[in-house]
Design a protein that fits this description.
With about 180 residues, this protein is an alpha+beta fold. It contains five helices and seven strands, in the order H-E-E-H-H-E-E-H-E-E-H-E.
């Protein structure tokens, strides 16, 4: 995939991230073979609406999580506290609702924001162990993330090693802000 196409898909992820209600960080994800197949963004509303459909009433009025249970928790750790379904997970669920089979031959683009600031990795890698495991189990070929150098393609093995390194405090890079254009 050429650099221009990668940048267009990364930009699509940033646009999807704007739909998120998460107070801490907002992410968008796109699954593609040669064209966009499935998208997702992190949103606690989606899962809570589903939980309510099962008769469990959790108080939530489609506003950002307040209080954010992970506000002071380092990125890539204690993800079980988050009320949201991650963008990567939502893209997988959306794919599963439309198609059958595994994601062999597909890659996922992932990009995030903090408010109006686009997040970029200051080094190579991926950061969420849960998402890395799910994407590997779905047989996704790889993940493409935005770094200071541009789009970085990671194999699933590379994404898994990077995510566990980040969660264990030995990550290859951390997320930092970049001015929104």
């Amino acid at each position: 995939m050429n650099q221009k196409t990668c940048q267009i898909l990364i930009d699509r992820c940033y646009e999807l991230a704007k739909l998120s209600n998460c107070q801490k960080r907002q992410f968008g994800a796109v699954i593609v073979p040669t064209e966009v197949t499935s998208t997702g963004y992190d949103d606690p509303c989606e899962i809570l609406d589903t939980i309510r459909a099962y008769g469990v009433n959790l108080t939530y009025d489609r506003q950002p999580c307040d209080p954010c249970l992970r506000a002071d928790v380092p990125s890539g750790t204690r993800t079980e506290l988050c009320r949201a379904v991650h963008a990567e997970q939502m893209a997988l669920l959306n794919f599963a609702q439309r198609y059958t089979g595994n994601l062999s031959g597909f890659v996922m683009f992932v990009a995030g924001r903090e408010g109006s600031v686009k997040l970029v990795k200051d080094g190579p890698g991926f950061y969420c162990t849960v998402c890395a495991r799910l994407l590997a189990a779905a047989r996704l070929d790889g993940i493409i993330v935005r770094t200071e150098e541009g789009a970085e393609s990671l194999s699933m093995a590379g994404a898994l090693m990077s995510a566990y390194g980040t969660a264990g405090g030995h990550g290859d890079g951390v997320l930092k802000g970049e001015s929104d254009d």
